[in-house]
Amino acid sequence: MKIIAMDVMSTGAIAYYVFISSRDGLSSPIFNQETPLQYADPVPQAVILTAIVIGFSIQALMLVGAMKLAHHNPTLETNEIEDNNTP
Amino acid sequence: MMSLTIIWIALPLFIGLTIYLLPKLDRYLALATVLMSFGYGLNLFLSQTSQQFQLLDNFGVSFWVDSLSSQFILTNALVTGAVILYSSFQNKTAFFYSQAIILHGSVNAVFICADFMSLYVALEVIGVAAFLLVSYPRSDRALWVALRYLFVSNTSMLFYLIGAILVYQANHSFAFTGLTNAPPEAIALIFLGLLSKGGVFVSGLWLPLTHSESESPVSALLSGSVVKAGVFPLLRCALLMDELLPVVQILGISTSFFGIIYALFEKDAKRILALSTISQLGWMMVAPMVAGVYALAHGLVKSLLFLASGALPTRNLDELRVKPMYSGLWLILLVGGLSMSGFPGFLGFSAKVSTLKSLSDWPEILMNVSSVGTALIFGKFIFLPHKRQGGHLKPGLILAALLLIVSLLVGNVLYLQAYSLANLGKALAVIGLGWLGYWLFIKRQDLKLPRMFEQFDNLVGSMSLVLIVLFWMVFT
């Protein structure tokens, strides 16, 4: 559950990047001599691509960890796992 | 210089993958990479240059190498080198070395980045590599600790990302220099991300459990070099912007006391070391100008102590007081403890003196009190009983300890200006006071601080509270 929640948070951060980049305009930044366009800023979109990939791989790693933990803690309640595993 | 830097930054990642393909050569490849890194750092340190490069075009990756980063790079190289020497006598698989080298490379990348995006990528790689190293034993506990670490670090990086885009919005560039024009909420968000990642102050309370429950080479690596990756960008920002300097200093002072107070009431050897890491991070933040020396001193000693703690018969200090340990091991703890408390003759002394010299007024007084606290904590280790026979040290530990202790002594020679009569007297007085305090109070007390704030839910919650405090600090 917490892992899904983290994914929702990262989706929020990504959406914010897209939102900021589209503040000046919505069209793609293709140079056109006749009609200068109001284009969306490509830099944040390019940069957030990295964050999407990283977020995805972290998600995968955490789910594998959770699967491993599920062998001994089938309910996956964090409180229970924490009580069992803190000295 | 530029192509050398690019090769140096890309090599660990490349070697990390190669180790996996050629598992027979693992430790040699790893050691060679670390040696190269050490050479690069030393060259940078001796030449004292400061250079900035921009790769690709305006929005590309930017690097900034100077003497501050060179000291951090040296720390990283020595710590990783010692850890690899230590583990090469244990049966670690190629996977361990490959992750350690990737971690080494990404920590190096943090020390030379000059823009928020490359910093983000480097910090995330650190997070993933550290997760894999902590979960290496694959026991339930290790997995839980590692998951908790990855969760906290990823959440803090989300805050950081939002801060980074706000900086971009204000400047149309991700460079560190853009922080000057950025709105206060951007600074607060970025600082929160870095503080939580670096394990500083209340938002860094994930650190004690993670560092104490990992295997000793991994905790040495985490405590010796990885935590500095969170602090280094903070120092960079504080040096770039004078307005931020007091904020970082106040955070540093509170962190140093926070760590010490927690460590005083702790009985578990590895937890004391982890908590003292928190307090030492505070020391680095108090004086950004000379933080490099401090980072070097702290990284060497902390990895030495963590590696030695792996050989202790038990982690509980009460039991260690009754059961004497082998003298060789005690000697290592003694050297570490003395250097950490700032005893003349070790690098820790020069680092403490130069930090204190760059302060004035009330921060100086507070930090002097804090150094008494440090001496007090390490009194717990120094005054443990020991016996000459009935034990031996593992060859890996001997090699690693030799490397670290020799560098502590050699590093000392580089900062000879610290040796004046007044400084010597002061250092001895501080240590004397600390040890007196140990014998009078700490040895007898039996209080335990609650660990409530280290619970998983509270870690994430305290992050948002710290964010509000930071916003208020930056805003005023």
Identify the notable features of this structure and list them briefly.
A: 87 residues, mainly alpha, B: 476 residues, two-stranded parallel sheet, 3% strand, globular
Model description:
The complex is a heterodimer of chains A (87) and B (476). Chain A is mostly helical and 87 residues long. Helices cover 66% and strands 0% of the residues of chain A. Chain A has one domain. Chain A is rod-shaped, with a radius of gyration of 20 Å. The relative contact order of chain A is 0.13. In chain B, the strands form 2 sheets. In chain B, strands 1-2 form a two-stranded antiparallel sheet. The two termini of chain B are 42 Å apart. Chain B has 476 residues and is mainly α. Chain B has one domain (138-475). In chain B, 74% of the residues lie in helices and 3% in strands. Chain B is globular. The chains are: A mainly alpha (87), B mainly alpha (476).
Helices, strands, pairings?
The complex is a heterodimer of chains A (87) and B (476).
Chain A: H1 2-21, H2 42-70, H3 78-85
Chain B: H1 2-21, H2 26-47, E1 51-54, E2 62-65, H3 67-87, H4 94-112, H5 116-134, H6 140-171, H7 184-198, H8 207-213, H9 216-240, H10 245-264, H11 269-286, H12 291-309, H13 317-322, E3 325-326, H14 327-340, H15 347-357, H16 361-382, E4 386-387, H17 395-414, H18 421-442, H19 456-475
Parallel strand pairs in B: 3-4
Antiparallel strand pairs in B: 1-2
